[in-house]
Amino acid sequence: MPPLAVFDLDGTLVDTAPDLSASLDHCLAQDGLPPMPLDLVRPHAGHGARAMLRAAYHHFSRPIDAEGVEAHLPVFLSFYEAHIADVSRPFPGVVAAMDRLEGAGWRLAVCTNKTERLARKLLEELKLVPRFAAICGADTFPAMKPDPRHLGGTIERAGGSAEKTIMIGDTLTDVAAARALSIPSILVDFGYAPDEAARAGASCVIGHYDELTIDLAMELFKDR
Ligand SMILES: O=C(O)COP(=O)(O)O
Ligand SMILES: [Mg+2]
Protein backbone atom coordinates (compact mmCIF):
# COMPACT_ATOMS: atom_id res chain seq x y z
CA MET A 1 0.00 0.00 0.00
CA PRO A 2 1.51 3.40 -0.98
CA PRO A 3 2.07 6.09 1.65
CA LEU A 4 -0.53 8.85 1.74
CA ALA A 5 -0.26 12.59 2.39
CA VAL A 6 -3.57 14.16 3.43
CA PHE A 7 -3.81 17.93 3.02
CA ASP A 8 -6.18 20.33 4.71
CA LEU A 9 -7.44 22.89 2.17
CA ASP A 10 -8.04 26.43 3.53
CA GLY A 11 -4.81 27.88 4.89
CA THR A 12 -2.78 24.77 4.02
CA LEU A 13 -3.08 23.90 0.33
CA VAL A 14 -4.71 27.06 -0.99
CA ASP A 15 -4.62 30.65 0.25
CA THR A 16 -8.38 31.17 0.19
CA ALA A 17 -8.58 34.06 2.67
CA PRO A 18 -8.80 36.90 0.08
CA ASP A 19 -11.84 35.41 -1.71
CA LEU A 20 -13.45 34.49 1.62
CA SER A 21 -12.78 38.03 2.82
CA ALA A 22 -14.44 39.52 -0.29
CA SER A 23 -17.53 37.36 0.39
CA LEU A 24 -17.61 38.61 3.97
CA ASP A 25 -17.31 42.23 2.79
CA HIS A 26 -20.22 41.64 0.41
CA CYS A 27 -22.39 40.65 3.43
CA LEU A 28 -21.11 43.54 5.55
CA ALA A 29 -21.90 46.07 2.80
CA GLN A 30 -25.53 44.93 2.81
CA ASP A 31 -25.67 46.04 6.45
CA GLY A 32 -23.93 49.34 5.70
CA LEU A 33 -20.66 48.17 7.26
CA PRO A 34 -17.18 48.85 5.81
CA PRO A 35 -14.86 46.06 4.59
CA MET A 36 -13.06 44.06 7.27
CA PRO A 37 -9.23 44.31 7.09
CA LEU A 38 -7.80 41.08 5.59
CA ASP A 39 -5.31 40.56 8.44
CA LEU A 40 -8.22 40.49 10.89
CA VAL A 41 -10.15 38.00 8.74
CA ARG A 42 -7.25 35.56 8.26
CA PRO A 43 -7.26 34.04 11.79
CA HIS A 44 -10.93 33.12 11.28
CA ALA A 45 -10.70 32.09 7.60
CA GLY A 46 -10.07 28.44 8.42
CA HIS A 47 -13.10 28.16 10.67
CA GLY A 48 -15.90 28.66 8.17
CA ALA A 49 -18.29 31.39 7.10
CA ARG A 50 -20.17 31.51 10.41
CA ALA A 51 -16.98 32.17 12.40
CA MET A 52 -15.96 34.93 9.96
CA LEU A 53 -19.39 36.61 10.20
CA ARG A 54 -19.38 36.46 14.00
CA ALA A 55 -15.86 37.91 14.20
CA ALA A 56 -16.68 40.75 11.80
CA TYR A 57 -19.86 41.85 13.59
CA HIS A 58 -17.98 41.67 16.86
CA HIS A 59 -15.17 43.79 15.35
CA PHE A 60 -17.68 46.47 14.29
CA SER A 61 -19.48 46.22 17.69
CA ARG A 62 -22.70 45.24 15.94
CA PRO A 63 -24.58 42.60 17.91
CA ILE A 64 -25.49 39.54 15.83
CA ASP A 65 -27.29 36.45 17.13
CA ALA A 66 -27.25 32.93 15.72
CA GLU A 67 -30.32 33.68 13.61
CA GLY A 68 -28.63 36.75 12.13
CA VAL A 69 -25.59 34.66 11.21
CA GLU A 70 -27.78 32.01 9.56
CA ALA A 71 -29.62 34.73 7.60
CA HIS A 72 -26.33 35.97 6.10
CA LEU A 73 -25.01 32.52 5.27
CA PRO A 74 -26.76 31.99 1.89
CA VAL A 75 -25.60 35.45 0.75
CA PHE A 76 -22.02 34.70 1.82
CA LEU A 77 -21.96 31.26 0.24
CA SER A 78 -23.52 32.19 -3.10
CA PHE A 79 -21.11 35.12 -3.49
CA TYR A 80 -18.20 32.88 -2.47
CA GLU A 81 -19.17 30.13 -4.90
CA ALA A 82 -19.22 32.64 -7.77
CA HIS A 83 -15.80 34.04 -6.79
CA ILE A 84 -14.16 30.94 -5.29
CA ALA A 85 -10.96 31.13 -7.33
CA ASP A 86 -10.82 34.81 -8.31
CA VAL A 87 -7.55 35.25 -6.41
CA SER A 88 -7.21 32.03 -4.33
CA ARG A 89 -4.02 30.22 -5.31
CA PRO A 90 -1.97 27.28 -3.99
CA PHE A 91 0.56 28.34 -1.35
CA PRO A 92 4.15 28.86 -2.60
CA GLY A 93 5.96 25.57 -3.14
CA VAL A 94 3.01 23.26 -2.50
CA VAL A 95 2.66 22.12 -6.12
CA ALA A 96 6.39 21.26 -6.21
CA ALA A 97 6.02 19.41 -2.88
CA MET A 98 3.12 17.40 -4.31
CA ASP A 99 5.25 16.62 -7.38
CA ARG A 100 8.02 15.32 -5.09
CA LEU A 101 5.63 13.15 -3.11
CA GLU A 102 3.93 11.75 -6.22
CA GLY A 103 7.31 11.14 -7.82
CA ALA A 104 8.28 9.05 -4.79
CA GLY A 105 5.10 6.97 -5.08
CA TRP A 106 2.94 8.76 -2.53
CA ARG A 107 -0.79 9.22 -2.93
CA LEU A 108 -2.41 12.57 -2.10
CA ALA A 109 -5.81 13.40 -0.60
CA VAL A 110 -7.73 16.39 0.76
CA CYS A 111 -9.63 16.41 4.07
CA THR A 112 -11.34 19.80 4.53
CA ASN A 113 -14.10 21.33 6.62
CA LYS A 114 -15.33 23.14 3.49
CA THR A 115 -18.34 21.39 1.97
CA GLU A 116 -17.24 18.77 -0.52
CA ARG A 117 -18.95 20.60 -3.40
CA LEU A 118 -17.12 23.88 -2.74
CA ALA A 119 -13.83 22.07 -2.17
CA ARG A 120 -14.18 20.29 -5.52
CA LYS A 121 -15.17 23.51 -7.30
CA LEU A 122 -12.12 25.33 -5.94
CA LEU A 123 -9.75 22.47 -6.81
CA GLU A 124 -11.33 22.10 -10.26
CA GLU A 125 -10.80 25.79 -11.02
CA LEU A 126 -7.18 25.45 -9.90
CA LYS A 127 -6.83 22.28 -12.04
CA LEU A 128 -5.71 20.24 -9.04
CA VAL A 129 -8.51 17.63 -8.88
CA PRO A 130 -6.68 14.84 -10.78
CA ARG A 131 -3.88 14.83 -8.22
CA PHE A 132 -6.07 13.58 -5.39
CA ALA A 133 -7.13 10.02 -4.70
CA ALA A 134 -9.89 11.42 -2.46
CA ILE A 135 -11.42 14.85 -1.73
CA CYS A 136 -13.56 14.73 1.41
CA GLY A 137 -15.43 17.68 2.87
CA ALA A 138 -17.38 18.62 6.00
CA ASP A 139 -20.48 16.85 4.68
CA THR A 140 -18.88 13.76 3.12
CA PHE A 141 -19.19 11.71 6.31
CA PRO A 142 -21.45 12.03 9.39
CA ALA A 143 -18.69 13.95 11.25
CA MET A 144 -15.99 16.48 10.39
CA LYS A 145 -12.51 17.34 11.73
CA PRO A 146 -11.43 17.23 14.53
CA ASP A 147 -13.56 14.07 14.61
CA PRO A 148 -11.16 11.33 13.46
CA ARG A 149 -13.91 9.68 11.37
CA HIS A 150 -13.46 12.42 8.76
CA LEU A 151 -9.73 11.78 8.40
CA GLY A 152 -10.18 8.02 8.73
CA GLY A 153 -12.84 8.03 6.00
CA THR A 154 -10.57 10.10 3.74
CA ILE A 155 -7.75 7.59 4.16
CA GLU A 156 -10.09 4.71 3.35
CA ARG A 157 -11.41 6.42 0.20
CA ALA A 158 -7.86 7.18 -0.92
CA GLY A 159 -6.95 3.52 -0.53
CA GLY A 160 -4.41 4.24 2.22
CA SER A 161 -3.83 3.03 5.76
CA ALA A 162 -3.42 5.06 8.97
CA GLU A 163 0.02 3.46 9.54
CA LYS A 164 1.32 5.00 6.31
CA THR A 165 -0.41 8.39 6.36
CA ILE A 166 0.73 11.90 7.28
CA MET A 167 -1.58 14.90 7.75
CA ILE A 168 -0.61 18.43 6.71
CA GLY A 169 -2.72 21.23 8.21
CA ASP A 170 -2.76 24.75 9.61
CA THR A 171 -4.91 24.52 12.75
CA LEU A 172 -5.46 22.48 15.89
CA THR A 173 -8.50 20.98 14.13
CA ASP A 174 -6.16 19.17 11.73
CA VAL A 175 -3.57 18.23 14.34
CA ALA A 176 -6.23 16.88 16.73
CA ALA A 177 -7.82 14.71 14.03
CA ALA A 178 -4.38 13.26 13.21
CA ARG A 179 -3.47 12.67 16.85
CA ALA A 180 -6.72 10.81 17.48
CA LEU A 181 -5.58 8.28 14.85
CA SER A 182 -1.89 8.34 15.92
CA ILE A 183 -1.03 9.86 12.55
CA PRO A 184 1.99 12.20 12.32
CA SER A 185 1.10 15.78 11.45
CA ILE A 186 2.91 18.70 9.85
CA LEU A 187 1.71 22.16 10.83
CA VAL A 188 2.23 24.91 8.24
CA ASP A 189 2.88 28.07 10.20
CA PHE A 190 1.95 30.40 7.32
CA GLY A 191 -1.67 29.18 7.58
CA TYR A 192 -4.61 30.84 9.30
CA ALA A 193 -4.47 29.75 12.94
CA PRO A 194 -1.21 28.04 13.89
CA ASP A 195 -1.74 28.63 17.62
CA GLU A 196 0.39 27.30 20.47
CA ALA A 197 -1.76 24.21 21.01
CA ALA A 198 -1.45 23.31 17.33
CA ARG A 199 2.32 23.82 17.39
CA ALA A 200 2.68 21.73 20.52
CA GLY A 201 0.52 18.91 19.17
CA ALA A 202 2.04 18.68 15.68
CA SER A 203 4.88 16.27 14.90
CA CYS A 204 6.71 19.14 13.18
CA VAL A 205 6.19 22.71 12.00
CA ILE A 206 7.25 24.05 8.59
CA GLY A 207 7.45 27.64 7.41
CA HIS A 208 7.63 26.84 3.67
CA TYR A 209 6.79 23.82 1.51
CA ASP A 210 10.46 23.55 0.47
CA GLU A 211 10.90 21.93 3.90
CA LEU A 212 8.45 19.14 3.01
CA THR A 213 10.97 16.71 1.60
CA ILE A 214 10.58 12.95 1.16
CA ASP A 215 13.19 12.50 3.91
CA LEU A 216 11.10 14.54 6.36
CA ALA A 217 7.90 12.70 5.43
CA MET A 218 9.56 9.28 5.87
CA GLU A 219 11.19 10.39 9.13
CA LEU A 220 7.74 11.10 10.61
CA PHE A 221 6.75 7.45 10.34
CA LYS A 222 9.66 6.50 12.62
CA ASP A 223 8.24 8.30 15.69
CA ARG A 224 4.74 7.07 15.12
O1 LIG B 1 -13.96 25.92 5.65
C1 LIG B 1 -13.61 25.60 6.80
O2 LIG B 1 -14.36 25.58 7.79
C2 LIG B 1 -12.16 25.21 7.02
O3 LIG B 1 -11.63 24.55 5.91
P1 LIG B 1 -10.27 23.67 6.07
O4 LIG B 1 -10.66 22.49 6.91
O5 LIG B 1 -9.95 23.33 4.64
O6 LIG B 1 -9.25 24.55 6.71
MG1 LIG C 1 -7.26 24.97 7.39
From TrEMBL:
Pathway where it operates: Organic acid metabolism; glycolate biosynthesis; glycolate from 2-phosphoglycolate: step 1/1
State the superkingdom.
Answer: Bacteria
User: Which Pfam family, an example, fits this chain?
Assistant: HAD_2
Q: What is this protein called?
A: Phosphoglycolate phosphatase
One GO MF annotation is: metal ion binding
Q: Name the active site residues.
A: 8
Describe the reaction catalysed, as an equation.
2-phosphoglycolate + H2O = glycolate + phosphate
Alphabetical GO biological process terms: carbohydrate metabolic process; DNA repair; glycolate biosynthetic process
Cellular compartments per GO CC:
cytosol
Needed co-factor(s): Mg(2+)
Organism (species): Fulvimarina manganoxydans
Report the protein's function. Specifically catalyzes the dephosphorylation of 2-phosphoglycolate. Is involved in the dissimilation of the intracellular 2-phosphoglycolate formed during the DNA repair of 3'-phosphoglycolate ends, a major class of DNA lesions induced by oxidative stress.
Enzyme Commission code(s) on record:
3.1.3.18
